[in-house]
Amino acid sequence: xxxxxxxxxxxxxxxxxxxxxxxxxxxxxxxxxxxxxxxxxxxxxxxxxxxxxxxxxxxxxxxxxxxxxxxxxxxxxxxxxxxxxxxxxxxxxxxxx
Length: 97
What we know:
The protein is mainly α. The protein contains five helices and no strands. The model has no long low-confidence stretch (mean pLDDT 77).
């Protein structure tokens, strides 16, 4: 799949308008390396149908923020070198809440 083929399957706002043709193009011709990250998200239905390109970016930003917060909470709760014990403690705490 080339960039023009990818854009053919999307509308001007970034909605997937030709999902069947999209999957067929990928199956028949593969995907250029530069497009693989974006194409795989569509193939795996990471985002619900009908999202615009702008809203997809918002979803990605929210997911990144959540991951950063979880990582900060984990690193603050666990001293270095005590990862496994701390992970088990965090799991027990979350189950008991």
